[in-house]
Amino acid sequence: RIMRPDDANIAGNVHGGTILKMIEEAGAIISTRHCNSQTGEPCVAALARVERTDFLSPMCIGEVANVSAEITYTSRHSVEVQVNVMSENILTGAKKLTNKATLWYVPLSLKNVNKVLEVPPIQYTRKEQEDEGKKRYEEQKLDRLETKQRNGDVIFPIINPEPHTVGYSQSSLIHLVGPSDCTLLGFVHGGVTMKLMDEVAGIVAARHCKTNIVTASVDAINFHEKIKKGCVITISGRMTFTSNKSMEIEVFVDADPFVDEPRERYRAVSAFFTYVSLSKEGKPLPVPQLLTETEDEKRRFEEGKGRYLQTKAKRQAQMQQAAQ
Amino acid sequence: RIMRPDDANIAGNVHGGTILKMIEEAGAIISTRHCNSQTGEPCVAALARVERTDFLSPMCIGEVANVSAEITYTSRHSVEVQVNVMSENILTGAKKLTNKATLWYVPLSLKNVNKVLEVPPIQYTRKEQEDEGKKRYEEQKLDRLETKQRNGDVIFPIINPEPHTVGYSQSSLIHLVGPSDCTLLGFVHGGVTMKLMDEVAGIVAARHCKTNIVTASVDAINFHEKIKKGCVITISGRMTFTSNKSMEIEVFVDADPFVDEPRERYRAVSAFFTYVSLSKEGKPLPVPQLLTETEDEKRRFEEGKGRYLQTKAKRQAQMQQAAQ
Amino acid sequence: RIMRPDDANIAGNVHGGTILKMIEEAGAIISTRHCNSQTGEPCVAALARVERTDFLSPMCIGEVANVSAEITYTSRHSVEVQVNVMSENILTGAKKLTNKATLWYVPLSLKNVNKVLEVPPIQYTRKEQEDEGKKRYEEQKLDRLETKQRNGDVIFPIINPEPHTVGYSQSSLIHLVGPSDCTLLGFVHGGVTMKLMDEVAGIVAARHCKTNIVTASVDAINFHEKIKKGCVITISGRMTFTSNKSMEIEVFVDADPFVDEPRERYRAVSAFFTYVSLSKEGKPLPVPQLLTETEDEKRRFEEGKGRYLQTKAKRQAQMQQAAQ
């Protein structure tokens, strides 16, 4: 579809969150269709996880986004979908790859939302495809278990923070979940959640460096808990790490189901977003360094540095592999 | 209501689809109100057909759209509504007629969506009004039957197409039907469908001529099949004909009800949109000619030429009549 | 959240209606949460009244709106919420108070929408807080009764009105209530209604003075009757009074529940909006005087003048108090 003014920031760059939302919609459609392709209980595919994804080039207002999706692996209860986003300038005809993402879905019964159904297996053209898919499946399963444990942190407001400290740029946003945010099952679309997360992360980044900022990448996001219609969700973000030209922001989504079936507020999702700062000509700018104060802040900074160096090493390895 | 940035293209011209959506909303309100005016089963009026309509002058961001609707004929099971759209520049006070449209609605029972109810008859001030309305009713009934039969065509993707061929500009868009797209009966508003059709047609036109394009007219659209909440709809468009200064684009809407009540994908709507290309000063530009390759493309080009010449002849006859 | 192009007028000033909608959403969340904090029947808080509120400084596209809400008084069946809106320019870090509003909510049972539930009492830190709250509660109760009685007026269209008369600028807008306009109970959010009211009042003001206009204040709004999903609402506005630099516009909301449970059209809400006209540099401009023609128009002008002088006197008293 064509990118509209509301999809973009003041500089005309389309929000990463808008792109994540389109990706998730495409993934939900193809996996729901696949899981209903055999006669049996009707179901809706719910997003369980998005693998780390990079935003390769910014998209602008007036460009057309082409989203294509393909099922690349099925386990007994989950579907792996590969989604590609191309941006096309329809006036010049130029096309660019904007984004590649891998998503995992789980089919939930339309009649009983707590029942996970079986996924019809796909046919692989080569045996290696199945083996590689199985490897990816095992890896993500492990990672899901790990993140489930570190999900307990809370962000408190800070009075009169100094510029460039963590407290200075931390931000939060509250949203009441309405019908247009939800699937047929009455739960929030994963894509809606990711769009709000990107919005908060973008506010944190802009408060820190006070320039035009864009989403560079999003780390793997795990959706541990569904969020029901009528909940209030609080999305909060804080900066964890800065390199010379990038900022890492941790975002939490907490759901508060205060109506209907009262239950404690709970952590539904958490993720790391990486942003870069751009000059008016679209060149990356140096980023002011994050000032860490508490022990926790220093520890998170080191952990962020670890992720940053790991990603950098992985990318260099890929480039060498590609060059061979 | 006031036209917003998201209602318009980059050049500030309001999308034809936004106007069609407003027209349909006005038509649905007046005919639903009329059909519920007698005590009896409550119902919702569903759009069955929109007659050919011309966009007389472009509307811009910041202008106010005044939509007025009037019931002009009732048959036993259908209502004809005439809708006028005036654009008003509230700063200068200038008003222009933007659009005149004729729509047909059918009342469906709120309790049983497959039951068509009876329409309370309206009073005519002159006997001729009733006779002319009856004539229009018979004509549209005939046309509905005809289009139902040619509804089988499918658009396939083409690899590496040459510029200005049919394959080069053909486009499609996928949309998951959500609650805010639907009426009280849980079916997609006709206006929502038309807005998406105009979006795809606009992308086809822009890809072909790579300039600022606007909707000039829409041929009669028949809504043969309802589209239910939770469906995925695929809207696809291809260019069929070019004159010196206009492009005709055929648009198909296919619905895929993959959840809940599995059923084959089916053609719900099809229509022809005519676009013109505008210079920066808003003057019509010459259009690159469409290169037809296959026999089918040549046949469709000739058919499009036939429609173009027929419309031109009709318009000249009307102008001569008006001049007498 | 960040202000988007669709939230603002052509000059980039965020619509007062967008701000009112955010305020109401925050109020609805905090009071619904409070009313569900004790075990008992689940409920949704419905907006009963908004006290008079001033727009202290305009907000612009790209700024972040910070909305904070606090419960300041509870009676047996109602909750008073104080909401503050700060606008923040995230590039410069500058913050300004945009708006302060006081709202009253009533908890309605999720199982039986006509049943008003009891509100858990809040703890006051000082006895005076409770007494002042009780005084505000009694005052608004009285005012609600009064406005319920003058709720009968209707706006008729006028043919060929002269510039600057009441008939010249009066306007109305029709809206079909869809699912995304509604709460969990299936009734229109008060904030949605206020946004539409501000849109109509803005069209009346722009038609009268043909310049860039912004909302300066909104008088107390009482929500006497709920509006159900599927209703058509007609929002109509007419100018009642002009001072040198401000315009007062009266806005009515009428609901027409034509489907499902047929009932007469009824007046749901009415309110007074005050607008000012701004130059390109954002300075207030003189306003063309309203030409009153009928006896009713002259009477309403005098009443408007009364409200204007009363507000002016109150503001001067507050400023003197603040200066002491």
From TrEMBL, chains A, B, C:
Residues 1-111, 167-281 form the HotDog ACOT-type domain. GO terms for biological process: acyl-CoA metabolic process; fatty acid catabolic process. The gene is Acot7. It is found in: Cytoplasm. Residues 295-324 are annotated as: Disordered. It comes from the Eukaryota. GO terms for molecular function: carboxylic ester hydrolase activity; long-chain fatty acyl-CoA hydrolase activity. This is palmitoyl-CoA hydrolase. It is an enzyme of class 3 (hydrolase). CDD domains: BFIT_BACH. Its main location: cytoplasm. Keywords: Cytoplasm, Hydrolase, Lipid metabolism, Repeat, Serine esterase. One of its GO terms (cellular component) is cytosol. Residues 296-306 have a biased composition (Basic and acidic residues). Pfam families: 4HBT. Its EC number is 3.1.2.2. PANTHER family: ACYL COENZYME A THIOESTER HYDROLASE, CYTOSOLIC ACYL COENZYME A THIOESTER HYDROLASE. The active site is at N9, D198.
